[in-house]
Amino acid sequence: MAAVLACVLFIVSTVAGYLLLDNNSLASAIEPQKSPSYFSSVGHILQTNVPTALSLFAGVITLGVAALFLLPLVGMFLGASMNVAVSIYGPGEVVARTVLYTPFEIAGFVVAATAGVLPLVVFTRRFIAGAHSETSRNAPRNSFRQTLHSVLNTSLKLLGLSLVILVVAAFVEGFAVLQV
């Protein structure tokens, strides 16, 4: 459920970011950059993507609420960036330049966001189940602390997976940048 929520928020906000940007003034102001070295490119990509993933994961601290606000911002930024790229290079060129790494980056961000919203989903389900079930009131339930420990453990594993995916994406993107 957390992954579905993260995917829907990300897709809707990315499309909104793409559609809402007036790219006429931005596209003319941006000049294509000379390709940096491979490791410089990878380092720059990681400097951007890792803090973004950590910000999405930070929703854990607020039991998922912060991730609900941050994920649409990340999606809108991605959509706006794609809009500008399409206006500069055209859709075919953008797809050719990004097809190798974009799926990894999107997956990495969605996994980080899933980790960030997981507490909200788990505790909402727990609250609803406890409020509407006669048997759950009488049966022993996991304490809040046990549930929180389990959620944090799962969220940390998801964050680790997200970071691995984003590192792979950065190395692939660094290679793709050199091919341009």
Please describe what this structure looks like.
This protein has 180 residues and is mainly α. It has one domain (40-132, 142-178). Helices cover 83% and strands 0% of the residues. The chain contains eight helices and no strands. The chain has helices at 2-20, 23-29, 38-57, 65-89, 91-98, 102-132, 134-138, 144-178. The mean pLDDT is 84.
Question: SSE layout and pairings?
Answer:
Elements: H1 2-20, H2 23-29, H3 38-57, H4 65-89, H5 91-98, H6 102-132, H7 134-138, H8 144-178
Helix pairs in contact: 1-4, 1-6, 2-4, 3-4, 3-6, 3-8, 4-5, 4-6, 6-8
Could you tell me the number of beta strands? 0
Query: Which percent range describes the beta-strand content?
Result: under 5%
In whole angstroms, the N-to-C terminal distance is: 39 Å
Q: Helix- and strand-based class? A: mainly alpha
Helix content: over 70%
- Name the overall outline: globular
How many domains comprise the coordinates? 1
Task: Provide the low-confidence segments as ranges.
Answer: none
| Largest sheet data | none
Tell me the radius of gyration. 19 Å
The arrangement of helices and strands along the chain is HHHHHHHH
How many H/I helices? 8
Mean pLDDT: 84
